[in-house]
Amino acid sequence: MHITQGPQFNGKASKRMHVMAKPIGAVCNIDCDYCYYLSKQDLLEYKKGCSPEMSEDDLETYIRQYIEGQNTPEIIFSWQGGEPTMLGVNYFKKVVELQNKYRPEGIHISNDLQTNGTLLNDTWCEFLAENDFLVGLSIDGPELLHNAYRTNRAGKGTFKQVMKAVELLHKHKVKFATLTCVNNLTSQNALEVYRFLRDEVKSPQMQFIPIVEQKTFRSTAPQTSENAQPRQGDKRLIPGNKNSIMEPWCVSDHAWGNFLITVFDEWINNDIGKVFVQYFEACVETWMGRKNPLCTLGEICGKGLAMEPNGDVFACDHYVYPEYKIGNIHDQTIEKMAYSVKQQEFGFAKSQMLTQQCQRCDYRFACHGECPKNRFISTHDGEPGLNYLCAGWHKFFSHIDRSLSYILRHLGHPVAHGKFSDAALHSQIAQRAAVQTKY
Ligand code: SF4
Ligand code: SF4
Protein backbone atom coordinates (compact mmCIF):
# COMPACT_ATOMS: atom_id res chain seq x y z
CA MET A 1 0.00 0.00 0.00
CA HIS A 2 1.31 3.43 -0.75
CA ILE A 3 -0.30 5.23 2.09
CA THR A 4 0.00 4.61 5.78
CA GLN A 5 -2.26 5.64 8.61
CA GLY A 6 -0.50 5.54 11.90
CA PRO A 7 -0.13 7.84 14.83
CA GLN A 8 -1.72 11.25 15.09
CA PHE A 9 -0.23 14.40 13.69
CA ASN A 10 -1.71 17.87 14.20
CA GLY A 11 -4.64 16.26 16.03
CA LYS A 12 -5.61 14.07 13.04
CA ALA A 13 -4.63 10.64 11.77
CA SER A 14 -1.19 10.78 10.21
CA LYS A 15 -1.27 10.26 6.43
CA ARG A 16 1.72 9.65 4.22
CA MET A 17 2.16 8.60 0.61
CA HIS A 18 4.90 8.43 -1.94
CA VAL A 19 4.78 9.20 -5.65
CA MET A 20 7.55 9.11 -8.19
CA ALA A 21 6.78 11.99 -10.48
CA LYS A 22 8.12 11.89 -14.03
CA PRO A 23 7.65 15.44 -15.27
CA ILE A 24 9.41 14.61 -18.54
CA GLY A 25 8.07 11.08 -18.82
CA ALA A 26 10.41 8.58 -20.44
CA VAL A 27 12.35 11.17 -22.43
CA CYS A 28 16.08 10.92 -21.84
CA ASN A 29 19.22 12.47 -23.33
CA ILE A 30 21.07 9.17 -23.29
CA ASP A 31 20.14 5.69 -24.44
CA CYS A 32 21.11 2.94 -22.00
CA ASP A 33 20.61 -0.52 -23.44
CA TYR A 34 18.81 -1.88 -20.40
CA CYS A 35 16.57 1.10 -19.60
CA TYR A 36 13.13 -0.19 -18.59
CA TYR A 37 11.51 3.19 -19.13
CA LEU A 38 12.48 4.42 -22.62
CA SER A 39 9.98 2.01 -24.21
CA LYS A 40 7.13 3.71 -22.33
CA GLN A 41 7.17 6.42 -25.00
CA ASP A 42 5.58 3.91 -27.39
CA LEU A 43 3.58 1.98 -24.85
CA LEU A 44 1.82 5.01 -23.42
CA GLU A 45 1.39 6.51 -26.89
CA TYR A 46 2.82 9.95 -26.16
CA LYS A 47 1.06 12.25 -28.60
CA LYS A 48 3.26 12.78 -31.64
CA GLY A 49 4.84 16.25 -31.73
CA CYS A 50 3.57 17.20 -28.26
CA SER A 51 5.96 18.26 -25.57
CA PRO A 52 6.27 15.47 -23.01
CA GLU A 53 6.97 18.10 -20.35
CA MET A 54 4.46 18.43 -17.53
CA SER A 55 2.85 21.84 -17.92
CA GLU A 56 3.14 24.45 -15.19
CA ASP A 57 -0.61 24.17 -14.46
CA ASP A 58 -0.42 20.41 -14.10
CA LEU A 59 2.69 20.72 -11.99
CA GLU A 60 0.84 23.06 -9.65
CA THR A 61 -2.18 20.72 -9.48
CA TYR A 62 0.10 17.83 -8.62
CA ILE A 63 2.11 19.67 -5.96
CA ARG A 64 -1.05 21.02 -4.32
CA GLN A 65 -2.77 17.61 -4.29
CA TYR A 66 0.33 15.82 -3.04
CA ILE A 67 0.72 18.23 -0.13
CA GLU A 68 -2.99 18.36 0.71
CA GLY A 69 -3.19 14.55 0.66
CA GLN A 70 -0.69 14.13 3.47
CA ASN A 71 -0.68 14.84 7.15
CA THR A 72 2.84 14.25 8.31
CA PRO A 73 5.77 16.35 9.56
CA GLU A 74 7.74 15.70 6.38
CA ILE A 75 6.57 15.45 2.77
CA ILE A 76 8.97 13.88 0.30
CA PHE A 77 8.80 14.64 -3.41
CA SER A 78 10.61 12.29 -5.80
CA TRP A 79 11.53 13.37 -9.32
CA GLN A 80 12.48 10.82 -11.92
CA GLY A 81 12.39 10.20 -15.64
CA GLY A 82 13.55 9.72 -18.27
CA GLU A 83 16.04 12.37 -17.36
CA PRO A 84 14.46 15.11 -15.23
CA THR A 85 17.42 17.50 -15.54
CA MET A 86 16.52 17.93 -19.24
CA LEU A 87 13.78 20.24 -17.94
CA GLY A 88 16.43 22.73 -16.83
CA VAL A 89 17.14 24.20 -13.44
CA ASN A 90 14.44 26.89 -13.80
CA TYR A 91 11.76 24.21 -13.96
CA PHE A 92 12.87 22.94 -10.56
CA LYS A 93 13.08 26.47 -9.17
CA LYS A 94 9.39 26.64 -10.05
CA VAL A 95 8.85 23.32 -8.25
CA VAL A 96 10.37 24.71 -5.07
CA GLU A 97 8.36 27.93 -5.44
CA LEU A 98 5.10 25.96 -5.72
CA GLN A 99 6.01 23.74 -2.80
CA ASN A 100 6.56 26.83 -0.67
CA LYS A 101 3.24 28.26 -1.84
CA TYR A 102 1.29 25.22 -0.60
CA ARG A 103 3.48 24.10 2.30
CA PRO A 104 1.54 24.28 5.58
CA GLU A 105 3.34 25.98 8.42
CA GLY A 106 5.65 23.68 10.35
CA ILE A 107 5.82 21.04 7.61
CA HIS A 108 9.18 20.17 6.11
CA ILE A 109 9.34 19.42 2.40
CA SER A 110 12.22 17.50 0.91
CA ASN A 111 13.05 16.49 -2.63
CA ASP A 112 14.98 13.71 -4.26
CA LEU A 113 16.00 13.62 -7.88
CA GLN A 114 17.24 10.66 -9.90
CA THR A 115 19.67 11.56 -12.67
CA ASN A 116 22.22 10.11 -15.09
CA GLY A 117 24.40 13.09 -14.13
CA THR A 118 25.43 14.05 -17.65
CA LEU A 119 23.74 17.49 -17.57
CA LEU A 120 24.83 18.52 -14.10
CA ASN A 121 26.94 21.67 -13.91
CA ASP A 122 27.83 24.27 -11.28
CA THR A 123 24.48 26.05 -11.60
CA TRP A 124 22.57 22.83 -11.09
CA CYS A 125 24.68 21.74 -8.15
CA GLU A 126 24.40 25.15 -6.45
CA PHE A 127 20.61 24.87 -6.75
CA LEU A 128 20.55 21.26 -5.50
CA ALA A 129 22.75 22.10 -2.50
CA GLU A 130 20.85 25.27 -1.61
CA ASN A 131 17.53 23.46 -1.68
CA ASP A 132 18.84 20.35 0.04
CA PHE A 133 17.88 17.92 -2.74
CA LEU A 134 19.02 14.32 -2.36
CA VAL A 135 20.44 13.22 -5.71
CA GLY A 136 20.42 9.62 -6.93
CA LEU A 137 23.26 9.29 -9.42
CA SER A 138 23.31 6.36 -11.84
CA ILE A 139 26.79 4.94 -12.20
CA ASP A 140 27.60 1.33 -12.96
CA GLY A 141 31.25 1.06 -11.98
CA PRO A 142 34.64 1.78 -13.54
CA GLU A 143 34.84 3.09 -17.10
CA LEU A 144 34.68 -0.16 -19.06
CA LEU A 145 31.78 -1.55 -17.07
CA HIS A 146 29.87 1.72 -16.96
CA ASN A 147 30.30 2.37 -20.67
CA ALA A 148 29.21 -1.12 -21.66
CA TYR A 149 25.54 -0.11 -21.49
CA ARG A 150 25.30 3.50 -20.35
CA THR A 151 25.80 5.17 -23.69
CA ASN A 152 24.59 8.30 -25.43
CA ARG A 153 22.59 8.28 -28.67
CA ALA A 154 25.80 8.05 -30.72
CA GLY A 155 26.67 4.87 -28.82
CA LYS A 156 29.48 6.57 -26.86
CA GLY A 157 29.96 5.81 -23.16
CA THR A 158 28.97 8.46 -20.62
CA PHE A 159 31.54 7.61 -17.94
CA LYS A 160 33.59 10.81 -18.18
CA GLN A 161 30.52 13.03 -17.92
CA VAL A 162 29.27 11.09 -14.90
CA MET A 163 32.62 11.35 -13.14
CA LYS A 164 32.50 15.09 -13.75
CA ALA A 165 29.11 15.06 -12.03
CA VAL A 166 30.61 13.17 -9.08
CA GLU A 167 33.26 15.87 -8.77
CA LEU A 168 30.65 18.64 -8.87
CA LEU A 169 28.40 16.93 -6.32
CA HIS A 170 31.29 16.65 -3.90
CA LYS A 171 32.47 20.20 -4.64
CA HIS A 172 29.06 21.69 -3.85
CA LYS A 173 28.39 19.29 -0.98
CA VAL A 174 25.19 18.02 -2.58
CA LYS A 175 23.68 15.05 -0.73
CA PHE A 176 23.80 12.04 -3.02
CA ALA A 177 23.56 8.28 -3.32
CA THR A 178 24.83 6.09 -6.15
CA LEU A 179 22.56 3.73 -8.04
CA THR A 180 24.37 0.86 -9.68
CA CYS A 181 22.74 -1.59 -12.04
CA VAL A 182 23.79 -5.17 -11.48
CA ASN A 183 23.67 -6.68 -14.95
CA ASN A 184 25.38 -9.61 -16.70
CA LEU A 185 28.72 -7.76 -16.63
CA THR A 186 28.81 -5.84 -13.36
CA SER A 187 27.60 -8.96 -11.53
CA GLN A 188 30.81 -10.74 -12.60
CA ASN A 189 32.99 -7.93 -11.25
CA ALA A 190 31.52 -7.31 -7.83
CA LEU A 191 34.69 -6.36 -5.97
CA GLU A 192 35.88 -4.06 -8.73
CA VAL A 193 32.52 -2.27 -8.79
CA TYR A 194 32.26 -1.98 -5.01
CA ARG A 195 35.83 -0.76 -4.49
CA PHE A 196 35.45 1.76 -7.30
CA LEU A 197 32.29 3.20 -5.71
CA ARG A 198 33.95 3.23 -2.30
CA ASP A 199 37.41 4.55 -3.23
CA GLU A 200 36.98 6.63 -6.39
CA VAL A 201 33.42 7.88 -6.22
CA LYS A 202 33.37 7.97 -2.41
CA SER A 203 29.71 7.13 -2.59
CA PRO A 204 27.89 8.26 0.56
CA GLN A 205 25.27 5.53 0.02
CA MET A 206 25.36 2.60 -2.41
CA GLN A 207 22.21 1.24 -3.94
CA PHE A 208 22.36 -1.82 -6.16
CA ILE A 209 19.56 -2.71 -8.56
CA PRO A 210 19.30 -6.18 -10.11
CA ILE A 211 18.53 -5.90 -13.81
CA VAL A 212 15.75 -8.35 -14.58
CA GLU A 213 13.66 -8.10 -17.73
CA GLN A 214 12.02 -10.69 -19.91
CA LYS A 215 12.27 -10.15 -23.67
CA THR A 216 8.58 -9.28 -23.66
CA PHE A 217 8.86 -6.47 -21.08
CA ARG A 218 8.36 -3.58 -23.52
CA SER A 219 4.79 -4.57 -24.31
CA THR A 220 3.64 -7.07 -21.70
CA ALA A 221 2.80 -6.06 -18.14
CA PRO A 222 3.84 -8.28 -15.24
CA GLN A 223 1.30 -10.95 -14.30
CA THR A 224 -0.55 -10.66 -17.63
CA SER A 225 1.29 -13.20 -19.78
CA GLU A 226 -0.46 -16.48 -20.47
CA ASN A 227 2.76 -18.29 -21.34
CA ALA A 228 3.74 -21.23 -19.15
CA GLN A 229 6.35 -20.19 -16.60
CA PRO A 230 9.70 -22.02 -16.78
CA ARG A 231 10.61 -23.87 -13.58
CA GLN A 232 13.39 -22.67 -11.32
CA GLY A 233 16.70 -23.88 -12.78
CA ASP A 234 15.39 -24.06 -16.37
CA LYS A 235 18.16 -23.08 -18.80
CA ARG A 236 15.81 -20.69 -20.61
CA LEU A 237 16.06 -18.46 -17.55
CA ILE A 238 19.79 -17.90 -18.05
CA PRO A 239 20.38 -14.58 -19.84
CA GLY A 240 22.34 -15.03 -23.05
CA ASN A 241 21.52 -18.74 -23.34
CA LYS A 242 19.97 -20.08 -26.53
CA ASN A 243 16.17 -19.73 -26.32
CA SER A 244 16.46 -17.65 -23.17
CA ILE A 245 13.30 -15.71 -22.29
CA MET A 246 15.51 -13.08 -20.66
CA GLU A 247 17.20 -10.04 -22.16
CA PRO A 248 20.93 -10.83 -22.54
CA TRP A 249 22.04 -7.94 -20.31
CA CYS A 250 20.16 -9.26 -17.25
CA VAL A 251 21.78 -10.67 -14.14
CA SER A 252 21.10 -14.37 -13.50
CA ASP A 253 19.68 -15.52 -10.16
CA HIS A 254 22.94 -17.09 -8.99
CA ALA A 255 25.07 -14.20 -10.25
CA TRP A 256 22.88 -11.84 -8.20
CA GLY A 257 23.43 -13.90 -5.04
CA ASN A 258 27.17 -14.14 -5.68
CA PHE A 259 27.42 -10.41 -6.31
CA LEU A 260 25.75 -9.58 -3.01
CA ILE A 261 27.81 -12.14 -1.10
CA THR A 262 31.12 -10.86 -2.48
CA VAL A 263 30.24 -7.25 -1.69
CA PHE A 264 28.91 -8.20 1.74
CA ASP A 265 32.13 -10.03 2.69
CA GLU A 266 34.26 -7.06 1.69
CA TRP A 267 31.92 -4.68 3.54
CA ILE A 268 31.74 -6.68 6.75
CA ASN A 269 35.48 -7.30 6.88
CA ASN A 270 36.62 -3.78 6.11
CA ASP A 271 33.88 -1.18 5.92
CA ILE A 272 31.01 -1.82 8.31
CA GLY A 273 30.12 1.43 10.04
CA LYS A 274 32.02 3.44 7.41
CA VAL A 275 30.33 2.60 4.12
CA PHE A 276 26.56 2.65 3.71
CA VAL A 277 25.15 -0.10 1.49
CA GLN A 278 21.38 0.17 1.38
CA TYR A 279 20.61 -3.56 1.14
CA PHE A 280 22.89 -4.46 4.05
CA GLU A 281 21.55 -1.76 6.33
CA ALA A 282 18.01 -2.93 5.47
CA CYS A 283 18.93 -6.53 6.31
CA VAL A 284 20.31 -5.46 9.69
CA GLU A 285 16.95 -3.80 10.45
CA THR A 286 15.06 -6.91 9.35
CA TRP A 287 17.15 -9.31 11.43
CA MET A 288 16.47 -7.05 14.44
CA GLY A 289 12.76 -7.55 13.87
CA ARG A 290 11.97 -4.20 12.29
CA LYS A 291 10.13 -3.66 9.02
CA ASN A 292 12.27 -3.71 5.92
CA PRO A 293 12.49 -0.11 4.68
CA LEU A 294 12.81 -1.28 1.05
CA CYS A 295 9.55 -1.98 -0.74
CA THR A 296 11.04 -4.82 -2.81
CA LEU A 297 11.83 -6.80 0.36
CA GLY A 298 8.82 -5.63 2.35
CA GLU A 299 5.63 -7.51 3.10
CA ILE A 300 3.36 -5.38 0.96
CA CYS A 301 4.02 -3.11 -1.96
CA GLY A 302 4.59 0.29 -0.49
CA LYS A 303 6.72 2.87 -2.15
CA GLY A 304 6.19 4.32 -5.52
CA LEU A 305 2.99 5.28 -7.20
CA ALA A 306 4.25 6.66 -10.49
CA MET A 307 2.94 9.70 -12.30
CA GLU A 308 3.47 10.53 -15.97
CA PRO A 309 3.65 14.15 -17.27
CA ASN A 310 0.01 14.13 -18.38
CA GLY A 311 -1.10 13.37 -14.81
CA ASP A 312 -1.74 9.63 -15.35
CA VAL A 313 -1.02 7.71 -12.16
CA PHE A 314 0.12 4.08 -12.06
CA ALA A 315 0.32 1.52 -9.26
CA CYS A 316 4.11 1.52 -9.16
CA ASP A 317 7.12 2.71 -11.11
CA HIS A 318 7.60 -0.90 -12.28
CA TYR A 319 3.98 -1.23 -13.32
CA VAL A 320 3.63 1.66 -15.74
CA TYR A 321 1.45 -0.28 -18.17
CA PRO A 322 -2.11 0.59 -19.24
CA GLU A 323 -3.46 -2.32 -17.15
CA TYR A 324 -2.09 -0.77 -13.97
CA LYS A 325 -3.24 2.80 -14.45
CA ILE A 326 -5.27 3.92 -11.47
CA GLY A 327 -6.39 7.34 -12.62
CA ASN A 328 -5.42 10.87 -13.56
CA ILE A 329 -4.92 13.92 -11.34
CA HIS A 330 -7.45 15.85 -13.46
CA ASP A 331 -10.22 13.38 -12.60
CA GLN A 332 -9.47 12.59 -8.96
CA THR A 333 -6.97 13.50 -6.30
CA ILE A 334 -3.74 11.63 -5.73
CA GLU A 335 -4.98 10.86 -2.22
CA LYS A 336 -8.13 9.18 -3.58
CA MET A 337 -6.06 7.14 -5.99
CA ALA A 338 -3.59 6.07 -3.32
CA TYR A 339 -6.50 4.91 -1.13
CA SER A 340 -8.48 3.35 -3.98
CA VAL A 341 -9.58 -0.26 -3.83
CA LYS A 342 -7.57 -1.03 -6.96
CA GLN A 343 -4.41 0.31 -5.39
CA GLN A 344 -4.99 -1.45 -2.09
CA GLU A 345 -5.57 -4.73 -3.89
CA PHE A 346 -2.33 -4.17 -5.77
CA GLY A 347 -0.49 -3.55 -2.48
CA PHE A 348 -1.81 -6.60 -0.65
CA ALA A 349 -1.46 -8.96 -3.62
CA LYS A 350 2.24 -9.08 -2.87
CA SER A 351 1.75 -11.13 0.30
CA GLN A 352 -1.42 -12.90 -0.83
CA MET A 353 0.18 -14.36 -3.95
CA LEU A 354 3.16 -16.03 -2.28
CA THR A 355 4.04 -19.51 -3.50
CA GLN A 356 4.14 -22.42 -1.03
CA GLN A 357 7.92 -22.36 -1.42
CA CYS A 358 8.00 -18.76 -0.15
CA GLN A 359 5.53 -19.48 2.63
CA ARG A 360 7.77 -22.26 3.92
CA CYS A 361 11.03 -20.40 3.31
CA ASP A 362 13.41 -19.78 6.25
CA TYR A 363 14.03 -16.30 4.90
CA ARG A 364 10.52 -15.22 4.15
CA PHE A 365 10.87 -12.58 6.89
CA ALA A 366 13.70 -10.93 4.91
CA CYS A 367 12.45 -11.42 1.37
CA HIS A 368 8.66 -11.74 1.20
CA GLY A 369 9.00 -13.14 -2.29
CA GLU A 370 10.74 -9.92 -3.46
CA CYS A 371 9.19 -7.63 -6.05
CA PRO A 372 6.10 -9.09 -7.79
CA LYS A 373 7.43 -7.70 -11.07
CA ASN A 374 10.07 -10.44 -10.95
CA ARG A 375 7.66 -13.29 -10.14
CA PHE A 376 7.47 -15.04 -13.48
CA ILE A 377 8.94 -18.48 -12.91
CA SER A 378 7.48 -21.57 -11.30
CA THR A 379 8.81 -23.61 -8.39
CA HIS A 380 10.34 -27.05 -8.85
CA ASP A 381 6.86 -28.44 -8.07
CA GLY A 382 5.39 -26.39 -10.91
CA GLU A 383 3.61 -23.72 -8.86
CA PRO A 384 3.70 -20.43 -10.82
CA GLY A 385 4.57 -17.03 -9.37
CA LEU A 386 8.01 -17.62 -7.89
CA ASN A 387 10.57 -14.84 -8.07
CA TYR A 388 13.20 -15.10 -10.81
CA LEU A 389 15.91 -14.06 -8.29
CA CYS A 390 14.83 -16.56 -5.62
CA ALA A 391 17.92 -18.80 -5.74
CA GLY A 392 20.21 -15.76 -5.49
CA TRP A 393 18.33 -14.18 -2.62
CA HIS A 394 18.21 -17.46 -0.69
CA LYS A 395 21.93 -18.01 -1.12
CA PHE A 396 22.65 -14.45 0.06
CA PHE A 397 20.36 -14.60 3.11
CA SER A 398 21.81 -17.98 4.16
CA HIS A 399 25.29 -16.51 3.81
CA ILE A 400 24.73 -13.43 5.96
CA ASP A 401 22.51 -15.04 8.62
CA ARG A 402 25.27 -16.08 11.05
CA SER A 403 27.35 -12.89 10.62
CA LEU A 404 24.40 -10.54 11.14
CA SER A 405 23.23 -12.45 14.22
CA TYR A 406 26.72 -12.37 15.68
CA ILE A 407 27.13 -8.62 15.10
CA LEU A 408 23.70 -7.73 16.48
CA ARG A 409 24.24 -9.84 19.59
CA HIS A 410 27.70 -8.39 20.07
CA LEU A 411 26.22 -4.87 19.94
CA GLY A 412 23.51 -5.82 22.44
CA HIS A 413 20.62 -5.81 19.95
CA PRO A 414 17.92 -8.47 19.74
CA VAL A 415 18.18 -11.06 16.98
CA ALA A 416 14.57 -11.57 16.05
CA HIS A 417 14.94 -13.77 12.98
CA GLY A 418 17.07 -16.32 11.22
CA LYS A 419 18.62 -19.65 12.15
CA PHE A 420 20.69 -18.03 14.93
CA SER A 421 17.94 -15.87 16.43
CA ASP A 422 17.57 -15.38 20.19
CA ALA A 423 14.60 -17.78 20.17
CA ALA A 424 16.59 -20.45 18.31
CA LEU A 425 19.49 -20.01 20.73
CA HIS A 426 17.24 -20.30 23.82
CA SER A 427 15.61 -23.39 22.43
CA GLN A 428 19.03 -25.00 21.84
CA ILE A 429 20.11 -24.15 25.39
CA ALA A 430 16.86 -25.57 26.80
CA GLN A 431 17.29 -28.77 24.80
CA ARG A 432 20.86 -29.17 25.99
CA ALA A 433 19.81 -28.59 29.60
CA ALA A 434 17.08 -31.22 29.25
CA VAL A 435 19.60 -33.75 27.91
CA GLN A 436 22.03 -32.97 30.76
CA THR A 437 19.27 -33.35 33.39
CA LYS A 438 18.38 -36.74 31.94
CA TYR A 439 21.89 -38.05 32.35
S1 SF4 B 1 5.83 -3.78 -7.32
FE1 SF4 B 1 7.96 -4.02 -6.65
S2 SF4 B 1 8.86 -1.97 -6.81
FE2 SF4 B 1 6.63 -1.74 -6.86
S3 SF4 B 1 6.03 -1.37 -4.70
FE3 SF4 B 1 5.87 -3.56 -5.10
S4 SF4 B 1 7.83 -4.41 -4.45
FE4 SF4 B 1 8.11 -2.20 -4.70
S1 SF4 C 1 14.22 -16.59 -0.94
FE1 SF4 C 1 12.93 -17.49 -2.56
S2 SF4 C 1 11.55 -18.89 -1.47
FE2 SF4 C 1 12.44 -17.50 0.06
S3 SF4 C 1 10.92 -15.86 0.24
FE3 SF4 C 1 12.50 -15.21 -1.26
S4 SF4 C 1 11.67 -15.79 -3.24
FE4 SF4 C 1 10.50 -16.91 -1.70
TrEMBL record:
Organismal lineage: Bacteria, Pseudomonadati, Pseudomonadota, Gammaproteobacteria, Vibrionales
Residue ranges, annotated region (Disordered): 217-238
Chain intervals with Polar residues compositional bias: 217-230
Family: Belongs to the radical SAM superfamily. Anaerobic sulfatase-maturating enzyme family.
Keywords: 4Fe-4S, Iron, Iron-sulfur, Metal-binding, S-adenosyl-L-methionine
PANTHER family in the cross-refs: ANAEROBIC SULFATASE-MATURATING ENZYME HOMOLOG ASLB-RELATED
Positions in coiled-coil regions: none
Segments forming domain Radical SAM core: 11-248
Organism expressing this protein natively: Vibrio algivorus
Protein name: Anaerobic sulfatase maturase
Keyword Iron-sulfur: yes
Cofactor(s) needed for function: [4Fe-4S] cluster
PROSITE patterns assigned to the protein according to its UniProt record, in alphabetical order: RADICAL_SAM
